[in-house]
Input
Amino acid sequence: MPIKNDKSSLLDEISTLKTLSQGFPKLKKFLNFPSLNNSANPLDFLLDLIKTLVGFDEFKNETIRFLTYQVIPIEAQLKSFLKSLLKSLFSCNTDALIPNDLFNVGVNISIKQIDFFDMLKIDPLSDTGSMTYGSLQEDLNHVIYDSIQNGISTWKDLLEITFSTFGIVDGEQTNNVFTIKIDSFYEGKTINDFINDFIDKIQIITLPFLINRIFDNMFGVISMNSNRSKESIQREEELFSLVDKVIDLPDLLINDSYFEFDEKDLSNITEKSNSRYNGIRNLMDCNNFESKIEIEDLLALNEELQSPILIEIEKTITNRFEIIAINSLNGVEEINKDRGLLNFYFSFFKGIIYGIFNLLLSPKLILFFSVYYKIVSNSVGFTNFKEFLTVNKAFIEKIVIDFLLPLLIKFLLKIIIRELTKLIAKDQIERQKERYSNFQKQLLSLLGISDDILKLL
Amino acid sequence: MEGSEYKLSSVIGKLIKFIKAKKGKQQDIPPFLILGGANQKSGLSSKDIAKNIIKRQADLGIPVGNAPDGTVSIAEQMEIVRVEEILNALFINAKITVVIPAGISVTSTGGNAAGQVVSQGVTTAIAVGTAIIQ
Output
C-alpha cells in the first residue's frame, strides 16, 4: 500500500477522535498538510501531525526544552555511537597497536581535506569567530587555527599539530599542510585506546554552537558576516541535500544514485546557497518574503549562552528566540505573521539534524577521522569534500538513520503520543458514559418507562 | 537504536494501533428483564426519529423550520426521507438470528409404567431462533 494511504488512515483516525472529543461544531479539517504525499520522510509528516495536535506555543516551548535539556545527553550518546560506529565500519572491530610513525613522523593532511566549509578562514577573535570557536584550551578547531597562525600547537596531551605552507600529502606536493602527531604517551597503546580518549575529550555539540549553526543554515547570517565563499556554502547545501535524501528513503536499501544530484537537486542547492550567501531565507508560505535575522541578535544569544554564570538557559533561549523570530518577520504582512512564526520554529527543529552534521564535519572531527583512517587503512582515503562523501556514504547513512533520525522522531512521538493519550482518554470516558447511559435507558425501557422520561437521562 | 523502527510506515502503524486500542464492552442486560419488557415496547417510528434529529439540529446552531420566504426546508424533508428509508430497510429486510449455546440446564417430566419421571440434564446442541425488528 502506498505510504500516502497509511498517512491518510492515521489522519482519519485522529480527525475522528478530535471531532468526537471536541464536539461537532469544532470539527477541524486537515487543510494544511503538505506532507500528505508518498514521501517517506518521517520528520515532515510528524511535524505536520504535531501542527494539528498541539498549538504553536506548545511546540515552541517543547523545542526550547529539547535544546535546554537534551543537548548534553545527545552529546554523550553521540560519542558512544561514534566509538562503536568507527570500530565497526573501519576497523572490523579489531584492535592493534598504534604504528610508531604516528609518534615520530606523523600524518600529513592538507587543509582542503579537513576544512570543507572554510571554517578555518574565520578569526576566532572576530564576532563570527566567537560564534564558531570555543576556547584554545578546549576546542580543537581553535587549536588547528592556532597552528596555522603560530606553526605548531598541541591539544590536551593527545595531538601535536604543525602547519606548513608546503608539504607532501600522499606523495604529492601540496599547499597548506598539517602534520599530525600522536602524543608519545600512546606508544605501546592500541588504536581503540586512542579513539576512546580522543572522543571522550572532544566536545562535539555545544548548545550555543549548535544554535548558531542552525540559524546560519537557515538564514546565512554567520556565513554572510564572515565573507564565506558561495562555493563553500554550496558544499554545505550539498551535504544537507544528501542528508535529506537519506531521510526520504522509503526503505533502508541505499544505492549510489542517492549520492548523485539530478538537475532538480542542483537547482535547489544553488537556490538555497544563493539565499544564504545573501543572508536571506525565502518564506514560500508568506508570498516569498525574504526573511533575515540580525547578527547582533544572534551574537547576544551566543554571549549569554556562553556566560559562565548563566543559570536560566530555558528562559534565555525563549526570550532571545522570540526577539530573533519577530525580527526575522519584520515587514511580513500581518496576515502571514503566525504562519511565519510557525515556519521559523518548525524549520529550526528540522535544522537540528543539519546543525549536528555541521558540527560533526568540522575540521577537528575530520582531522581525527583522517588520522584514524591513516592508521587503519594506511591512507586518508579522500582528498576533498566530494571524495569524502563518496568514501563515507555508509558513515553518513548510519549517523542519519541510526542516530539522528531516531533521536528526533522519538522526541516528536513523545509529544504526539502525549496529545493522542489526552484525546483517547477523553474519547474512552465519553464512550463509557454513553454505554452506561444506553444500558440504563434500555433497562428502564424494558420496565415500561416512557420515551419522554428516558430522554431526560 | 535500530533505524528500521523509525521508518515512517512503522511509526504510522504503531500510532494507528495505539489509537485503536481496546474500546471496552457493553454490559449484558438480565434476560428476565428482556423477557418481561420487550413486549411492552412501542416499536420504531420514523416520524419520531426524524423529529428528534431536527430538534437537535437547533442545538448545533443550524436553523430549523421553514425558510424566511415560507418554503419548506428541503434539508428537513431529506432527514425524514433518510430515516424512513433506513427504518423501511430494517423493517422489511433485517433478519435477526438468535443463537442459544449448548449446555443449557433442562428439567423435564414424563412418565412410564412406574409413574411420573423427572429427568435433569443439559442441551447438547445449539439452538437457533429468528426475530424481526418492529
Remarks:
- The mean pLDDT of chain B is 85.
